[in-house]
Amino acid sequence: MIHKFLFLFAFFLLSTSQAQDFCVADLKSAQTPSGYPCKSPKTLTVDDFVFSNLRAGNTSANPFKISLTPAFVDEFPAVNGLRLSAARLDMDVGGVVPMHSHSNTNELLIVLSGHITAGFISSDNTVFVTTLSKGKVMVFPQGLLHFQINAGGGKASAFLSFNSENPGAQILDLALFSNNLDSSFVGKTTLLDIAQIKKLKRIFGGRG
What is the annotated localization of this protein (predicted)? Predict the structure, then answer.
């Protein structure tokens, strides 16, 4: 009798549950706060779950001498709804990822080559900083300001992993110097020289 009951119970669960294993993003539709709508599973192949473009990018296209190649939801629709994504970081000599934060996303840095000095600042202003070599991994907790600097005499590269399919970032330099906030206000809140602020605004495209 017990075996019959267990069989019927299992059959009931299998017949009534409609578990959704994945939700590959339909990028042709509008994104919502809960993510993109799903493509029909009938249209998917294994290629939808493979990302092939995590290659080195151009590090000379910006003043920071870095390149970030993302595998976020807009580039890799299969991560939609999975709360994870990745990216590749390439750094020329002297390259730097400026101070930035991800509001709701933790980050892992996995060094592939070269030497990278990386660190973050906790909410009580304690600094955690070290220089990493190939094979070393560092975590940056969500919401905290952090940075990476090429600390070697050659190029450096790393993989980044995030617990969000679209991690986003607020870069401190851009927040301060790429806007139209009057330079006097920036000066009052940072104690920086106004001439230096205006110079940085010209570099980063800000006004005011």
Answer: Secreted, Extracellular space, Apoplast
115 annotated to bind ligand: no
74-86 average pLDDT score: 96
Amino acid identity of residue 95, one-letter, is G
- CB neighbours of 58 closer than 8 A, spacing ≥ 6? 67
CATH number at 62 reads 2.60.120.10
Q: Are 87 and 159 in contact (CB under 8 A)?
A: yes
Q: What is the model's pLDDT at position 19?
A: 63
Q: Are residues 144 and 196 in the same domain?
A: no
Residue 202, exposed/middle/buried by CB under 10 A (0-12, 13-18, 19+)? exposed
Q: Does pTM surpass 0.85?
A: no
- Is the pLDDT at 8 greater than 80? The verdict is no
Domain count within the chain: 2
Is 75 annotated in some ligand binding site? Answer: no
User: Where are the strands (E) in the chain, listed by range?
Assistant: 66-71, 85-91, 96-101, 107-113, 116-121, 127-132, 137-140, 146-150, 156-162, 170-171
